[in-house]
Amino acid sequence: MTWHVSVELFEAYDQGRLDPSRVMAVDAHLQACPVCRGAVPVDVVWLDRSWSVVLDAVESPATDRAERVLQRLGLPEHRVRLLSATPALRWSWLASTAAVLAFAVVAAYTGRAGAETVQLLFLIIAPVLPVLAVATAYGPPADPMHEITATTPLAGPSLALWRATAVVGVSMAMGLVAAILLPGPGWYALAWLLPAFLLCVSTLALATAMPLRVAAGVFGGAWLAGTGALAVSGADVSPAFHEPGAQAGYLAAAVAAAAVLTVRRRRLDPGETR
After folding, report:
1. How many CB atoms are located within 10 Å of the residue 1 CB?
2. Which of 78, 88, 217, 240 sits 20 to 30 Å CA-CA off 155?
3. Measured on CA atoms in the order 239, 245, 248, 250, is the torsion positive or negative?
4. 3-state percent helix, strand, coil for the chain, nearest multiple of 5
5. Are 235 and 132 in contact (CB under 8 A)?
6. What pLDDT score does 273 carry?
7. What percent of the chain has pLDDT above 90?
8. How far is CA 183 from CA 106, 193, 227, in A?
């Protein structure tokens, strides 16, 4: 004798009054029994309306503000979608970065006697912020969607470089605004840009041989340790930023790192475990 789902069981199933084990049993039976499956009441109007909503969401997904900005810049839609999912471009990360920079500006104006110290700290820390953004631009565990992203045709070196470029541009633009607002010499606004660019390019170049987060830690840590040690020792750190020779050295080193990255770019895959 073939077992079928009773009317009372159907009602309890439809109203959600069954425990999980019985729900699974009914589901399994409905998949195997066309008679009971045909007895399931179907709201055709609701089903059509729901399917229309799903279809509209898939074919014309809603775009957020960041995606609209990227589209206005002329980027193709498929690349915009992948870039907008970058962890370091989320509002939480942008807000925290803006808060750090705003605190530095406010402290420089309200600290009075300590304004020069705050300005110096800004010059030391600001170049590391884009490196942190690069470290969280691609790959686990920073990106919860990495397993899905990794299945796309653009995954790997291409997407890593696109995302790194996007986050470096955004974070350096935010830092530039903060530097312009800082009291003090005008060179504050630009002096940290080349060191930041050098650290980012060097991080990506080193990431062709080790995980991206480790490479970011190496260069970010080395920069903070070196400049911090000079500042603690009482040495004048400002020449490392405003002297033309120092800036030329940063530029030359960045060009060398970019050359290494260009040659080894196919080895850049932060999602790969080395």
Report:
1. 3
2. 217
3. negative
4. 75, 0, 25
5. no
6. 43
7. 11
8. 10, 17, 21
